[in-house]
Specification:
The protein is an alpha+beta fold and about 55 residues long. About 45% of the residues lie in helices and about 20% in strands. Strands 2-1-3 form a 3-stranded antiparallel beta sheet, with helices on one face.
Length: about 55
């Protein structure tokens, strides 16, 4: 299992995910980024920051 907290990349955001894979977390984060943060195109740097903060759950 993998876990990610959006607040690790976007200060103040309390969204968190625990998923079976990194790819699943990235998909959920992409949906969240569009719906909550208005980001429809995730820059490679942002994806890299997300990957850096994904941890084992």
């Amino acid at each position: 299992m993998k876990a990610f907290a959006c607040g690790d990349v976007v200060p103040g955001c309390e969204a968190r995910w625990v998923c079976s894979s990194e790819d699943e977390i990235l998909a959920r984060v992409g949906e969240h980024a569009a719906a909550v943060h208005g980001l429809t195109d995730l820059a490679p740097e942002l994806v890299g920051a997300v990957r850096t903060h994904i941890v084992a759950a």
